Amino acid sequence: MNWNLYPNFSENELKCQVTGHCDMDPYFMSCLQELRTRYGKPMAISSGFRDPLEHPIEAKKSRPGAHGYGVAADILVSGADAHELLKHIMDMKVFSGIGFSQKGDVGSRFIHVDTATSEILEGAPRPHIWSY
Predict the structure, then answer these.
(1) Of residues 19, 104, 7, the one with CA closest to residue 55
(2) Is the Cβ–Cβ distance between 96 and 115 less than 8 Å?
(3) What's residue 96's pLDDT?
(4) Euclidean distance between the first and the last CA atom of the chain, given in angstroms as a whole number
(5) Mind listing the pLDDT tens digit for each residue in 7-48?
(6) Rounded distance, CA 96 to CA 22, Å?
């Protein structure tokens, strides 16, 4: 993957935190870069690629989730910034999965975005929105 196409992100911040492997999807990354450009502020990623066999969250699933296919990221954001980021997410109309975790410690709140399809997620509904 040509990481130069995504100047606001690095392979290191999106790699699996367990294995160090990084198999992010180029289309997803172009969407994430466009989101960052529209948002105009840094976006800290708390989770990108997750090895479907070795990452503990993915390994206990019956089938890999969007992170296991490299088409998802969790963006650390809260409060008014989360509201602003969500506006851009919705305006883009490219993300098929949007999840919110806005409870607890402010530093751990995030918005999940993905471009997964119901085909790769074996029938999971898309588009879809949820809270954690």
Answers:
(1) 19
(2) yes
(3) 97
(4) 31
(5) 999 999 999 999 999 999 999 999 999 999 999 999 999 999
(6) 21
Under 8 Å CB-to-CB from 6, ≥6 apart: which residues? 29, 30, 32, 33
Q: Which of 72, 81, 57 is nearest to 112 (CA)?
A: 72
Strand boundaries in the chain, DSSP class E:
44-47, 72-76, 97-101, 110-114, 128-131
The model's pLDDT over 91-113, given as tens digits with 9 standing for 90+, comes to 999 999 999 999 999 999 999 99
| Residue with tokens 């998802």, as numbered in its chain | 72
Domains belonging to the chain, first-starting first, are 15-131 (3.30.1380)
Cα-atom radius of gyration of the chain, to the nearest Å?
14
- Entry pTM: 0.94
